[in-house]
UniProtKB/TrEMBL annotation:
Domain Ig-like as annotated: residue spans: 36-128, 131-212, 223-311
UniProt GO BP: homophilic cell adhesion via plasma membrane adhesion molecules; synapse organization
Organism whose genome encodes this protein: Tribolium castaneum (Red flour beetle)
Single GO MF descriptor: axon guidance receptor activity
Keyword Repeat in annotation: yes
Upper taxonomic lineage: Eukaryota, Metazoa, Ecdysozoa, Arthropoda, Hexapoda
Full protein name: Down syndrome cell adhesion molecule-like protein Dscam2
Length: 452
């Protein structure tokens, strides 16, 4: 039996500890080689900052050999002797324990038998880091741009594992129509005023809590005007209100015009605003107040103009009757906006010859009537009706309506068409849908001379 000589020499010089590990050669026992070998396997250990990890180093047939732990070229332990001054590092048997893990502890740790001629065991320590982000422009900043421009936001994330970065808009969808978009870069092209708002970048990797940053986008744009009613009906002695809804950033200056002439505020003509709604109120309307009005808005980027007509005449009739009738009569119903009573109604209707295409030369029937009316003061609408008789069954009809108050006739209504059902045969199915007559109709509307 031959046993190798192994010496551990500690040299103390000026307070420094130097370690020399000597191995005189291989070990032989009973005429054969019995070499030490590792029972542990190399592994990667993941830890969060503050954790404690134990790196295993189990060796079989160690004999008189010494276990050495190193990190890189730095010696940590030799045998049961701790070399490093780091109080967080200690031996548990031959296993290496590291407490209160720091980010700087990541890397390779080597368990070595003697001088390393019998191999070594390498463990890797990786530190799991919760995500952190850096946003450009800076987190919380407000980025100002103009309508139509292109802007880009960046969200650089770090952490281990690599975080997933997603963009979202705090209120609503992204301009692309997506709820979220993955990637560090968010680019917005042809920016519109609706794109203004807070954009959020969120990074997550399953370690700790996800982190979120925010950038606000401020979009400057020229004025955009909408009018709820481009036609306003009123009467002499009454009050009229004209509204323009204005969107503009920076805020614009609003001016009112009548027939292209600028208006000034008076006791009877009042200009006001509430939020984005700009109002021209005309009290005790006079005949000279009727005409075309416009509201104009301009700011440093551009301008816009919208028109509103103020008139005493009724609005066009809106026919609300169904598209079918009994075989020989039809109850025609319509609504017209007029603050003043309707004094006369003109109805024109005709039967369409639908046996061939383009054949629309049926005779117009011209009725002038004075039907009753039901007035709704909230909407200034008047409901009227009239029964048209002596219809031809199983036929297609069309009609037009004009209404008149003391200021004159309205514009002509839209063309309204209906079918008269065949005698003895229901025309409307159980679903309320109209059964087809089995004929194709193409209509070329000809306004009768009586309207001209």
């Amino acid at each position: 039996m031959r046993v190798s000589n192994f010496f551990l020499i500690l040299l103390v010089n000026l307070g420094e500890i130097c370690v020399a590990i000597l191995n005189s050669g291989p070990s032989y026992r009973n005429g054969g080689d019995i070499l030490p070998r590792f029972a542990s396997q190399p592994n990667t250990f993941s830890a969060v900052i503050g954790d404690t990890i134990v790196l295993p180093c189990e060796v079989q047939n160690l004999g008189s050999f010494v276990i050495v732990w190193k990190r890189g070229i730095t010696l940590l332990t030799a045998g049961q002797q701790k070399i490093t001054a780091d109080p967080r590092i200690s031996l548990v048997g031959y296993n290496l324990e590291v407490r209160d893990i720091r980010y700087s502890d990541q890397g390779d740790y080597t368990c070595q038998i003697g001088d390393g001629s019998h191999g070594d065991l390498i463990h890797t320590v990786e530190i799991l880091m919760p995500p952190s982000i850096q946003i450009f422009p800076n987190n919380g900043d407000v980025l100002t741009t103009r309508k139509g421009a292109t802007v880009s936001f960046e969200c650089r994330a770090s952490g281990n594992p690599t975080p997933v970065v997603q963009w979202s808009k705090k209120e609503g969808l992204l301009p692309s129509g997506l709820q979220v978009q993955t990637g560090y870069l968010l680019s917005l092209t042809n920016v519109q005023r609706e794109d203004a708002g807070a954009y959020q970048c969120t990074a997550s990797n399953g370690i700790g809590q996800a982190v979120t940053g925010e950038i606000k986008l401020h979009v400057l744009f020229p004025p955009e005007i909408t009018v709820a009613k481009s036609w306003v009906n009123s009467g002499e002695g009454l009050e009229a209100r004209l509204d323009c809804v204005v969107q503009a950033d920076p805020p614009g200056e609003v001016s009112w015009y009548q027939n292209s002439f600028p208006l000034q505020q008076t006791d009877r003509r009042i200009m006001s605003s509430k939020g984005k709604i700009y109002t021209l109120t005309i009290k005790n309307v006079q005949f000279s107040d009727f005409g075309n009005y416009s509201c104009t808005v301009h700011n440093s980027i551009g301008k816009d103009r919208k028109y509103i007509e103020l008139t005493g005449k009724p609005g066009p009739a809106r026919i609300i009757s169904p598209a079918y009738s009994n075989p020989d009569y039809y109850d025609l119903r319509w609504v017209v906006q007029s603050v003043l009573p309707i004094i006369e109604v003109k109805i024109l209707y005709r039967r369409i010859n639908a046996t061939t295409f383009y054949d629309h030369k049926g005779q117009w029937h011209d009725l002038v009537i004075k039907p009753e009316q039901k007035y709704d003061a909230k909407t200034s609408e008047r409901l009227q009706s009239f029964r048209i008789t002596n219809l031809v069954p199983d036929s297609l009809y069309e009609c037009l309506i004009l209404t008149k108050n003391q200021h004159g006739y309205s514009d002509v209504s839209d063309v309204h068409q209906w079918f008269s059902s065949d005698k003895g045969r229901p025309f409307v199915g159980s679903t309320g849908q109209i059964h087809c007559l089995g004929i194709a109709v193409m209509i070329l509307l000809q306004i009768p001379n009586v309207l001209l």
